[in-house]
Amino acid sequence: MARVSKTELARIRTLWEAIGGLSRPGKMPGYAWGIPAHNCKTGSTLVKVPGSVCNICYALKNRYIMPQVAAAYERRLKIYQENPTQWVDQMIELLELLLKAYPAKMTHFRWFDSGDLQDKEMLERILEIAWIVPNSIKFWLPTREYGIVKDVLETNVVPTNLTIRLSAHMQDRVLHLNQEIFGNAHVTTSAVASGKEPKTAQIGWQCPALKAGNKCGVCRACWSRDVPLVVYPAH
């Protein structure tokens, strides 16, 4: 831990409580923020579609449905909805203090380890956070809300420390971006390979986590704009 004052540590605890806390996915190199998966807009429809990625959603099973974990995600969404402007200010301050206190844990941050964008305003607030915090924090935002991203990018620029990755809805399918809409914004994509379609397992960057103890290890492809497509194995 870097040198921080007792006052700063106390402030971290206060802010942590104020925003409902952050997740620390064991697979990943840093923290994450998410909301309940059942609040997904597009995902709540796709979850009923066989062959869709949402039909096998990891955030609707295992530890994510444990009462204490589920309550934490519900609390984070409620806090955001009650005062989004205050949430932005508190998130910025918390991320900056965490970066000072734990720099090694704050190099990479994920939005939505569970859940997805709720509306344009939510994405605009995430953009605001990325613009203000130090560029040394790299953000990754996976989403199925193509329309929200399209609408927001018509009037906003994505900061270089944020990678927005549009997720293909169906397993073994690759999303082809409209370059006129998304190209200049450096938006990237992801897909999920079921193993039934060899072609999907031969294109893009193949996520190595399952071969590395279900951890990112040294891989940071998801956070990189230089990786246009990341392919995850179905799990």
Secondary structure tally, helices:
7
Query: Roughly what fraction of the amino acids lie in strands?
Result: 5-15%
End-to-end separation: 34 Å
Number of E-state strands: 7
Low-confidence stretches: none
Characterize the overall form: globular
Structural class: alpha/beta
Strand order of the largest sheet: 1-2-3-4-5-7-6
Helicity level: 25-40%
Q: What profile does the largest beta sheet have?
A: 7 strands, parallel
Structural Rg: 17 Å
Instruction: Give the overall average pLDDT.
Output: 92
Q: What is the H/E order?
A: HEHHHEHEHEHEEE
Could you explain how this protein is built, in words?
- The structure is a single chain.
- The protein is of the alpha/beta class.
- It has 7 helices and 7 strands.
- The protein has helices at 6-19, 43-46, 67-82, 84-101, 120-132, 146-153, 179-182; strands at 32-33, 108-111, 138-143, 162-167, 188-193, 205-206, 229-233.
- α3 crosses α4.
- The model has no long low-confidence stretch (mean pLDDT 92).
Secondary-structure blueprint of this entry?
Layout lengths: L5 H14 L12 E2 L9 H4 L20 H16 L1 H18 L6 E4 L8 H13 L5 E6 L2 H8 L8 E6 L11 H4 L5 E6 L11 E2 L22 E5 L2
Parallel strand pairs: 1-2, 2-3, 3-4, 4-5, 5-7, 6-7
Helix pairs in contact: 1-4, 3-4, 4-5, 5-6
Give structural attributes.
235 residues, 7 strands, single chain, 7 helices, alpha/beta, seven-stranded parallel beta sheet, 13% strand
